[in-house]
């Protein structure tokens, strides 16, 4: 399985942008990059995903390096509700089972 | 509202007493799966199902069973629970578009303690 590497924890001030990095140097050409987050006492929640081009949605933006060996999740204006563990995941397909292999993620703390 | 529900949310049981954790989704998704989450290990897939009557093992299937008799339901069965199955369990479902994953929706989790 291709692996991802994320910092264990990050802090950011409320109402400021947050850039969460992820390294995936062994990514293959067909792997999608997904981001999920897990708020305290909840199940993981989809944030965004992409393949090669940068992606935007109402929650966040995903910037993917040209060589696809790294990506950055951007929260444009962090709020206290964004405090969560953020998982960068590569999805890969094995006989039709597209697997999301979760690592340990980055714990994001928002400082009021 | 699109959702995945799990019951019970919390369960304390004893070794060897069979139990079932139910999972239901209202999005008509073909794909459903079960994960367990343990400190330092992230989420690991237990079993998955690509459609009714189609199930297969994930990464950590030992000690678990599943069934998929209806599209909306995917129960997780522990025939003889042991303390090493104490964990936080998540059910998830997703649709399938052009052979690639759609958004995966997770349930709220079931915290199981086996004494």
Structural commentary:
The complex is a heterodimer of chains A (112) and B (115). By secondary structure, chain A is mostly beta strands. The mean pLDDT of chain A is 90. Chain A is 0% helix and 51% strand. In chain A, 32% of the residues are buried. Chain A contains no helices and 10 strands. The radius of gyration of chain A is 14 Å and the shape is globular. Chain A has strands spanning 9-13, 18-23, 32-38, 45-50, 55-56, 61-64, 70-75, 84-94, 97-100, 106-111. In chain A, strands 1, 3, 4, 8, 9 and 10 form a 6-stranded mixed sheet that branches. In chain A, strands 2-7-6-5 form a 4-stranded antiparallel sheet, with no helix packed on it. Chain B is mainly β. Chain B is built from no helices and 11 strands. Chain B has strands at residues 4-7, 10-13, 19-25, 31-38, 42-51, 54-57, 65-66, 76-78, 87-97, 100-106, 110-114. In chain B, strand 4 (31-38) and strand 5 form a beta hairpin. The radius of gyration of chain B is 14 Å and the shape is globular. The chains are: A mainly beta (112), B mainly beta (115). The interface between A and B is medium-sized, with 23 and 24 residues.
What are the main properties of this structure?
heterodimer, A: mainly beta, six-stranded mixed β-sheet, four-stranded antiparallel β-sheet, B: 115 residues, mainly beta, seven-stranded mixed β-sheet, 11 strands, 0% helix, globular
Element order of chain A: H for helix, E for strand: EEEEEEEEEE
Supply the number of helical segments of chain B: 0
Count, helices of chain A: 0
Biggest interface between chains: A-B, 23 and 24 residues
Shape of chain B: globular
Terminal CA distance of chain B reads 36 Å
Describe the oligomeric state of these chains in a short phrase: heterodimer
Helix content of chain B: under 10%
Percent range of helical residues of chain A: under 10%
Structural class of chain A: mainly beta
Strand percentage of chain A: over 45%
Largest sheet of chain A: 6 strands, mixed
Major sheet description of chain B: 7 strands, mixed
What is the H/E string of chain B?
EEEEEEEEEEE
Computed structural class of chain B: mainly beta
Enumerate the spans of chain B where pLDDT stays under 50 for 5 or more consecutive residues.
none
Beta-strand residue percentage of chain B: over 45%
Query: Whole-Å distance between the termini of chain A?
Result: 38 Å
Shape of chain A: globular
Give the overall pLDDT of chain B as a whole number: 92
Radius of gyration of chain A: 14 Å
